């Protein structure tokens, strides 16, 4: 798998990677975060505070965790993802839901199939880090948000403390590939997280990009000593 992946361009590589882990993605998420990702997503959804009359876009929705959480609070939510295998899991979960304010679509976050100023809120959970062009992805979000619309970005972070960062990187380097190997049969599928985090501008860099693009009320919250981060902003 690893050798095949290096032959592909970034988007194809990410797509192949998520195809290989889609079936076990939710399980591994629970294991690697000890279930805490649910709390972080709940917090994001509360902070976005979608109401009945509003429309939200959940970019890189994957298996739909955030999409469903947002819709539970009211409003309509479009979940968008590049990868068909992740969307298939999301569709299966959607079919079991009683109240359905959600829709799903396959598309590239770098070229959103949405008109300007369409959404009251946009969310992106553990997705921004995967984009080939992060500034381009944030600019697309700016384009589709209504003036005053809210943005929330949840992702891995870079802990400000060097000691915590070193310990955390060791966890990502050694423990995550073991989970990937045990539960998805592929260590390389989970070793990508550290590589993508090292390249990710994280707390400070993403905040600077948001300000550069024109977002206002930009804030960053460190979660668990900065191992995770939540950016909030308004168009
Ligand atoms: C780590 S998963 C996050 C899923 C979900 N948001 C969550 O929090 O559990 C990242 C998702 O981003 C999607 N993705 C990566 N690059 C993308 C792109 N260019 N456009 C749309 N989706 C993309 C992947 O297919 C994958 O489903």
Features:
single chain; 235 residues; alpha/beta; Rossmann fold; seven-stranded mixed sheet; 7 strands; 21% strand; globular; disordered N terminus; binds S-adenosylmethionine
Q: What does this 3D model show about the protein?
A:
Strand 6 and strand 7 (228-234) form a beta hairpin. The protein has helices spanning 2-6, 10-21, 25-32, 36-48, 65-72, 84-95, 134-144, 162-184, 188-199, 202-213; strands at 55-59, 76-81, 102-106, 119-125, 145-156, 216-223, 228-234. Helix content is 49%, strand content 21%. It is α/β, with parallel strands linked by helices. It contains 10 helices and 7 strands. The protein binds S-adenosylmethionine (SAM). S-adenosylmethionine (SAM) binds next to helix 2 and helix 5. The site of S-adenosylmethionine has 20 residues, from helix 2 and helix 5.
Q: Any idea what the CATH architecture is?
A: 3-Layer(aba) Sandwich
Number of extended strands: 7
Average of the residue pLDDT scores: 92
Strand-pairing-aware structural class? alpha/beta
Shape field: globular
What is the count of helical runs?
Answer: 10
What fraction of the residues are assigned to beta strands by DSSP?
Answer: 15-25%
- Side by side, the strands of the main sheet go 3-2-1-4-5-7-6
How many domains would you count in the coordinates? 1
Helical residues, percent: 40-55%
Summarize it:
By secondary structure, the protein is α/β, with parallel strands linked by helices. The chain has helices at 2-6, 10-21, 25-32, 36-48, 65-72, 84-95, 134-144, 162-184, 188-199, 202-213; strands spanning 55-59, 76-81, 102-106, 119-125, 145-156, 216-223, 228-234. It has 10 helices and 7 strands.
């Amino acid at each position: 798998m690893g050798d095949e992946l290096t032959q592909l361009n970034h988007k194809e590589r990410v797509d192949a990677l998520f195809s290989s882990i889609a079936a076990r993605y939710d399980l591994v998420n629970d294991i690697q975060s000890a279930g805490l990702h649910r709390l972080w997503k709940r917090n994001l959804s509360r902070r976005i505070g979608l109401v009945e009359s509003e429309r939200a876009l959940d970019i890189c929705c994957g298996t739909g965790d955030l999409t469903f959480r947002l819709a539970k609070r009211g409003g309509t939510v479009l979940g968008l993802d590049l990868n068909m295998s992740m969307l298939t899991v999301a569709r299966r979960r959607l079919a079991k839901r009683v109240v359905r304010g959600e829709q799903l679509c396959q598309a590239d976050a770098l070229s959103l199939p949405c008109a300007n100023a369409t959404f009251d809120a946009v969310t992106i959970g553990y997705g921004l880090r995967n984009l080939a062009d992060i500034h381009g992805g944030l600019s697309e979000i700016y384009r589709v948000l209504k003036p005053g619309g809210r943005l929330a970005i949840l992702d891995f972070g870079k802990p400000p403390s060097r000691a915590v960062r070193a310990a955390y990187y060791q966890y990502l380097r050694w423990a995550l590939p073991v989970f990937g190997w045990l539960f998805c049969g592929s260590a390389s599928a989970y070793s990508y997280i550290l590589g993508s985090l090292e390249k990710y501008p994280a707390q400070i860099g993403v905040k600077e990009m948001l300000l550069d693009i024109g977002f206002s009320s930009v804030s960053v919250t460190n979660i668990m000593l900065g191992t995770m981060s939540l950016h909030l902003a308004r168009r």
